[in-house]
Write a structure and sequence with these properties.
It is built from eleven helices and eleven strands. The chain has helices at residues 8-24, 45-49, 59-75, 92-109, 124-135, 210-215, 217-222, 229-238, 242-252, 274-310, 315-353, and strands spanning 33-38, 42-43, 80-86, 114-121, 141-149, 152-154, 173-179, 191-193, 200-203, 262-266, 363-364. The strands form three sheets. It has a seven-stranded parallel sheet, with helices on both faces. A two-stranded antiparallel ribbon has the order 2-11. A two-stranded antiparallel sheet has the order 6-8. α4 (92-109) crosses α5 (124-135). The longest helix is centred in the C-terminal third of the chain and has 39 residues, at 315-353.
């Protein structure tokens, strides 16, 4: 007896059950899906000091957009992925508005309902939020899912806390936010991070060093290819059938970058972080100078008064004492200037020392 022979009848029943399961799943893949990806701030020596507007798509973001395209294109040939090159050191509202205008044109050209997936990494979450607010005004947007990867704002650029609305997993908008639980730049260098958003808040990142964990979030989100969290979030949103999910996972696991990803350049980047840094240092320096000079003048004036009163009956001595007091004022003011110089040098050195060596070279950080 051959025990390895398959039972045709049993196999037929199994295939029938799989087909039935596919039919029972209310797949949403027939509706075109538009995926918008917002990168974080490109933090390199040149962009920090002089600024390039925060434009540029690094390899990690391109790889994430590519994997998303492979997965969704296997579900529906009309699905698209737009990698938004926005000025991430500038206004997030401008970046979000530019992408929303692009979506508006898509909806004008392709009538009927569309679903939208938004992925915002770090400060890109702020541009994503601005995009969401405008996109939900479009009657052609049926459902929208937003994914925030370790959202982080820069206080010097006016960022506060994200406040996206939430309508639940099956409502018009649903949010998923991934956090690593590590406060970014714990020393008070002016960032806003690690807080809950409306919707689902999930643990994420590789842990350990906060800087490395944050910078590696795109890689963490795409790790595993077809089994990655990126693909799973897309399939869940699309309510793909098992057969559709298998095809999408296989496509996402393919090597190489997809050629169908659209890159959208949105102008409006900022001048860099040097100006806010200089303003901050200048304010601190002025405070030190005023305090030191004020104390010096107060002490010198007190001493001059004492000398004059003590030697009032000796005019010659009084003049000599007055001149000595004036010299003391000059010396003290010089000392205050030296103190100011040392304070500024110490402040700049402390800021630079807080930045690890691995990130003092061009690297996407925020």
């Amino acid at each position: 007896m051959n025990f390895n022979r398959k039972n045709p009848e049993r196999q037929s029943v199994r295939l029938t059950l799989e087909a039935l399961e596919d039919r029972l799943v209310l797949s949403q893949t027939a509706v075109p899906l538009d995926v918008f990806v917002f990168h974080g701030t490109q933090l390199s020596a040149s962009s920090v000091l002089f600024g390039d507007g925060g434009h540029g798509l690094d390899d990690n973001i391109k790889a994430m957009a590519s994997m998303a395209y492979k997965a969704v294109h296997a579900l529906n040939g009309k699905d698209r992925v737009i990698d938004v090159d926005w000025g991430s050191i500038g206004s997030p509202a401008k970046g979000g508005h530019g992408a929303a205008q692009d979506l508006h044109q898509i909806l004008q050209q392709e009538h009927g309902p569309h679903d939208v997936e938004v992925i915002g990494f770090s400060r890109g979450g702020y541009a994503a939020e601005a995009f969401i607010k405008e996109s939900l005004r479009e009657p052609g947007v049926r459902r929208l899912q937003a994914v925030f990867l370790d959202p982080t704002g820069i206080n010097a650029l006016g960022d506060g806390k994200l406040q996206p609305q939430e309508n639940g997993p099956w409502g018009r908008e649903h949010n998923i936010s991934y956090h690593d639980g590590l406060h970014f730049l714990p020393g008070g260098l002016g960032v806003t991070d690690e807080y809950s958003l409306a919707g689902e808040n999930r643990p994420g990142g590789d842990g350990g060093n906060a800087l490395k964990s944050h910078a590696g979030f795109p890689n963490w989100y795409t790790a595993g290819g077809g089994q990655s969290r990126l693909v799973q979030d897309l399939l869940t949103f699309e309510q793909a059938t098992p057969a559709q999910a298998a095809a999408a996972k296989s496509a996402a696991a393919a090597s190489g970058l997809a050629t169908g990803v659209q890159e959208l350049y949105v102008p409006g980047g900022g001048p860099g972080l040097l100006l806010p840094l200089l303003v901050s240092v200048g304010e601190h320096a002025i405070e030190v100078l005023v305090d030191d000079a004020g104390r010096a003048l107060e002490v010198a004036a007190g001493k001059a008064g004492q000398f004059i009163v003590a030697t009032f009956d000796k005019p010659g001595h009084a003049v000599s004492a007055l001149l000595n007091s004036a010299g003391t004022v000059v010396k003290t003011a010089t000392g205050a200037a030296d103190s100011l110089e040392h304070a500024v040098e110490h402040f700049a050195e402390s800021v630079w020392n807080d930045v690890p060596n691995w990130i003092k070279h061009p690297f996407g950080l925020f």
